[in-house]
């Protein structure tokens, strides 16, 4: 009998070794060290940013919703564990019956009955149906917790990006205001040169127009700043308001751009972990569906007291007990069991495809972010050379203008090119910062 039971118990479980993570990144990493193992407090050492991240982790509505989903999954898991135990119920009944005289001519005409007892019912889990349900519920619990971690890593990255966006907007605003100030001084110089007959009135008007062209950027920057502050307040669970920040557009500690090996995504990146736990759950639900094809064994026991008079209900002679064992084999169930198994297999296949797709997307994100980081480094070096050349150009053209060896258009073009390059330089540095933050999130950093 034991051998028959083992041969029928065909439970199959998910094997992680079947997941192919080779070349997910598009190249072979150098070592297994990954920045995902770095706590966020060590990556973001700006005290203000740390305070905001702590506030977001405490008050962000999306993260609080994710925590409640974990609590919901915990409740279902507790219920699945309890299903392995017998169900017990107590009952107490009183019954009065008046019999028909035509049917019971010799009586009794009136009958009273009273019962007080308990009943227990237990389904013996021979084929692992209930155990599979419990393991599936546990996998769902782990998937919910991974979902919470995914929300947390995304929240930390979004807060950091919003913070550094504000810092970059402040830097752009300062550069633009300085450019407007320089243009005002240039207007004064042009007016003086006009009086000296070196330039015409057109030069003065063009210089004033260049000043306003730079100044009109300021309202747009202010609007972007306000919108970014409001967006960050939402992340922090606040009402709209101002955000205090530093003026340093850099990570205080130089981050180690280590990505580790692709298989580490299974242990570090929450959405990959969630997809893997979902696969585990579907495997267990497939095992559960198979078990419905086998006989179910149920044991039912009841005990208590029964009497026709209430004062004799607890008399020892009123005690009664009953034990029943039942074995039921499904023969025709309107294709319910067949459909259940087909649906479970389809969900299992779908979950495996989702895991594969999640890994592919993760590899793509890592590859894109690394390329963005490398590109930003190249741009920063080239941009610095451009800035050095443009600063000299502005200085030289202004001096030549005073001696009549350069035109006002050359001066204006040099200043406009310098402003554009300075703003783009901030964008380049922000791109580098964003790449570091995005890589940290893409590798699964932020929840440990």
CATH arch. level architecture: Up-down Bundle
What sort of overall outline do the alpha carbons produce when their principal axes are compared? elongated
Alpha plus pi helix count: 11
Q: What share of the residues lie within helices? A: 55-70%
As for the CATH topology, it is Outer membrane efflux proteins (OEP)
Cα(first) to Cα(last) distance is 49 Å
Q: Largest sheet, order of strands side by side?
A: 1-2-3-4
Radius of gyration: 37 Å
**Low-pLDDT residue intervals, each spanning 5 or more residues:** 1-8
Counting DSSP E segments of at least 2 residues, the number of strands comes to 4
Order of helices and strands: HHHHEEHHHHHEEHH
Percentage of β-strand residues: 5-15%
The CATH class designation is: Mainly Alpha
Biggest sheet record: 4 strands, antiparallel
How confident is the prediction overall: mean pLDDT? Answer: 88
Q: Tell me the domain tally.
A: 1
Structural class: alpha+beta
Classified in CATH, the superfamily is Outer membrane efflux proteins (OEP)
Characterization of the model:
Helix 5 packs antiparallel against helix 6, helix 9 runs antiparallel to helix 10 and helix 10 runs antiparallel to helix 11. The chain is elongated. It has a single domain, classed as Up-down Bundle (Outer membrane efflux proteins (OEP)). The N terminus is likely disordered. It has a four-stranded antiparallel beta sheet, with no helix packed on it. With 448 residues, it is α+β, with helices and mostly antiparallel strands. The protein is built from eleven helices and four strands.
